[in-house]
């Protein structure tokens, strides 16, 4: 499954919305909401750089069902990015006590 789009923004508050003062940056904290919900593609940085990033997936989840999206971030393109993904995830979770995939169907 591939993300429909990837978005990025700065970590600046939307002072225009909060207090009526001009924003220090065009790409503010509520940029993802503005892009996905309001359809404002200009709210996110077209250069795909910034302090925050989001991958936009559209999934159909039946009632009572679930879907899992697995992500691996890397500076390089990986040929087999998910070959050891679950094993690595389980190892990392055993180190911090969480249980990813515990309810996976």
Sheet-strand content, in percent, reads 5-15%
Radius of gyration: 18 Å
Q: Summarize the amount of helix as a percent range.
A: 10-25%
Number of DSSP strand runs: 2
Total domains: 2
The parts where pLDDT drops under 50 for at least 5 residues are none
Strand order across the largest sheet: 1-2
Mean pLDDT across the residues is 81
Principal-axis shape equals elongated
**Termini Cα gap:** 17 Å
- Sheet/helix structural class: alpha+beta
Determine the number of helices (DSSP H or I, runs of at least 4 residues): 3
The major β-sheet equals: 2 strands, antiparallel
Order of helices and strands: EHHEH
Describe this structure in words.
This protein folds into two domains: 61 residues, no CATH class; 31 residues, no CATH class. The chain is elongated. The model has no long low-confidence stretch (mean pLDDT 81). It is an alpha+beta fold.
